[in-house]
Every structure is written in structure tokens, then in C-alpha cells.
Amino acid sequence: MRGPKWRLSAGLLAVVMALSLAGCAGNGADGEDGLTIGLLLPSRAVPRWEQSDKPMIEKRVKELCSECRVVYANAENDAASQRQQMNSMITRGVSALILDVVDPRALRSSVRAAERADIPVVAYDRLAEGPISGFVSFDGGEVGRLQGEALLRGMGPRADGGTVVMVNGDPASPNAAWYEGGARAVLQDRVRIARSYDTLGWRTENAHDHMSAAISALGPDRIDGVLAANDSIAAGVVAALKSARVSPLPAVTGQDADLDAVRRIVEGEQYMTVYKPFRLETDAASAMAVALARGNDIDNLVTTSVDSPTTENVPSILLTPTAVTRENIGRTLVEDGVYTIDQICPPKLRPDCDRAGLTR
């Protein structure tokens, strides 16, 4: 991966403004060409895809191009289904594609088919293979580092020499190895990684099975921390620990700031999650797709370049994630309008929210 020209953090507002201006600067009035943007998301197992990304992309594309239309398909974690969905969109002649790929290798031929049909492809959240025109994601190595650093803090005095279980993501996703690599770089010299699992489909039930196996192998009192790759996986990990009556629960990480995960953090069942301001990602992908659909370049949008296994120097935007623990929920998720206090704090969690300083 190439180094970024500059990293998005304090200057996020400026970038969003630039994206807005670039997306609106087409060859004519909005919608005059009747453009259609295809949106292909990978699953419903992770709540964010349907609840956040899809509506945000649809809204942003419409803001940038009032008569543009978004056509949508969800692959339900099946690469063959996503390949069929993508090929169908190519056949119907969409103007550009936003692709969150289930399996990069399995979709490579479809990306090539899109290029032959002069349909640009923006890889979204996960780096696709083949001749893609752009890539938008959060820095996966930084996600893993944030998880590893927070896990060590959550482990307290057991952070040096303690026993950790890693419950990673789906190996078909390029992000899974990206996250794992960032986490291992932090953990490998500090703790003993006793077990490491790959979680097909990022599914909660698969993570539950992995954690149950780790508890059986290591003993319920011999696990000091769990590196869970995202919040769906963390849900399975926590459920398995509670089923085994592990008390107190070890520190457990997560990612995506799912509402259930935020409530688990407030309650003390999950130590942290990684917040990725999805609106920045959806805005960037929408601006890229609209610009490319109009035949414009995206040089003024991108901030870095990355290499995929098949393509060098893919124009890219890598956004900066934020670690969220009980201490900064209010300063991050609440202040950014992701959730309200009432959403995070149902009546049964009010005492925990009081202790977290959310409702006092």
C-alpha cells in the first residue's frame, strides 16, 4: 500500500466540501443524461449495510445529481449471487457501480466485464480486484491498531503476558487480514495469542462457536482478552462467555458502533468498538461514482493510492477511524448524531448510563 498524500482527520469538513463541489461539477445540468448508479452491498449480517450505508448513498447521490437513480442489490454473503447481480447491472447499462465486494477473486471477472462495457467501478469499503476506478474505505490497519491498543488497556495488569483469543473476520474479505495485521502488530510482543479463528460471513453464530471452542480448550478463567473483529462477532463472543458463566468478562473489542454493541459497552459487557463515520465514506463513494458516471476524473477527490493484487495505484480515499469506549460515547456517537441518549439508554440501562455520565 502506498503512503497517503495526506490523511483525513481534522480536515474532514474540508474534504466533504470538496467532495460536494466535485460531485456537482458535471458536464451539464444534474440528471440530464439520465444516469444510473448501481449499488452492490455484501450482506445483511452486519447491520450497517442496510441501516446506514444504503440510505446514505441513495440520499447523497440524489443530492449530487437530482435525476440520478440508484439501483440496489444485496448479495447475502454469497459471491455467486453478487456476481449475478453485478452482471445484471452491467447488462442493463448502469452508468457506474459502487461495489462492496463479498469475495474479490470471485468478482474479478465481473469487474473486467464492467471495464469492457465502459462502466467505472468504485470499490467501497473493501478493495476489489480487477480494473477498478477508485476505492473508498477506512484505514483497516488503523482499525486493527485501535482494537489492539484498546484491548491492552482493557486488560489492565494482564496486558503483559496475558492470554488473548482472536476471533477475526471472514477470510474472503480483504479487510479481515488488514484488521488482523494491524491488531497483531500491537499485540504480538505483549500477549500470548492462544487461539485465532476466521469467522465465515462475519456471522454472530459462527463467532459464538469459535468462542465456545476457545473456552473449552483454554478454560473459562484463562482468557484475559478477546480481539473480536467487529460488533457482530463481539455479540457471539459475549454470548458464549456468558453461557459459560465467565465472570468477570474479559475485555472484548468490536467495530462498526452497532447500537447493540454501544449498549453492551455501557453495560460493561464489551470494552470498545471502532466508530467509522459512515457519512464520510458514503459521501466520498457517491461523489466518485457520480463524477465517473459523467466521464469526469476524480483527481481532486482522492487523497492516496493503493495497490490491489491485480492493479497498481488505484485512486483512493482512506478515512480515519476512532476508538469508542464508555468514556467517550457522548463525545463521539452522541455529538455526531449517530444515536440519541434515549436510543442508547433504555430504562433497564439507565443506571449504567448514569455511571457512564450519559444521563446525569
Strand content: 15-25%
Helix content: 40-55%
* CATH homology group of the largest domain: Response regulator
Helical segment count? 13
Q: What's the CATH topology name of the largest domain?
A: Rossmann fold
How many strand elements? 13
Q: Over the alpha carbons, how many angstroms does the gyration radius reach?
A: 21 Å
Instruction: Write down the overall geometry.
Output: globular
Main sheet makeup: 7 strands, mixed
Mean residue pLDDT: 91
Order of helices and strands: HEHEHEHEEHEHEHEHEHEHEEEHHH
How far apart, in Å, are the first and last alpha carbons? 45 Å
What are the low-pLDDT stretches, counting only 5+ consecutive residues below 50?
A: 1-32
Structurally, the number of domains stands at 2
CATH class of the largest domain: Alpha Beta
Write the CATH architecture name of the largest domain. Answer: 3-Layer(aba) Sandwich
Q: Helix/strand-derived class?
A: alpha/beta
Protein name: Solute-binding protein
InterPro entries: Bact_Solute-Bind_Prot2, Peripla_BP_I, SBP_2_dom
Subcellular location: Cell envelope
Domain Periplasmic binding protein: 37-296
Would you give an account of this structure?
This protein is α/β, with parallel strands linked by helices and 360 residues long. The chain has helices at residues 12-24, 48-64, 79-92, 104-116, 140-155, 174-187, 204-218, 231-243, 259-267, 278-293, 329-334, 341-344, 350-355; strands at 36-41, 69-74, 96-99, 121-124, 134-138, 163-167, 192-197, 225-228, 251-252, 273-275, 304-306, 314-319, 322-324. The chain folds into two domains: 12-138 and 276-322, 3-Layer(aba) Sandwich (Rossmann fold), CATH 3.40.50.2300; 141-270, 3-Layer(aba) Sandwich (Rossmann fold), CATH 3.40.50.2300. The chain has 13 helices and 13 strands. The strands form three sheets. A seven-stranded mixed β-sheet has the order 2-1-3-4-5-12-11, sandwiched between helices. Strands 7-6-8-9 form a four-stranded parallel β-sheet, with helices on both faces. Strands 10-13 form a two-stranded antiparallel sheet. α1 runs parallel beside α10 (278-293), α2 (48-64) packs across α10 (278-293) and α7 (204-218) packs across α8 (231-243). The longest helix is centred in the first third of the chain and has 17 residues, at 48-64. The protein starts with 11 loop residues before the first helix and ends in a 5-residue tail after the last helix. Residues 1-32 have low confidence and may be disordered.
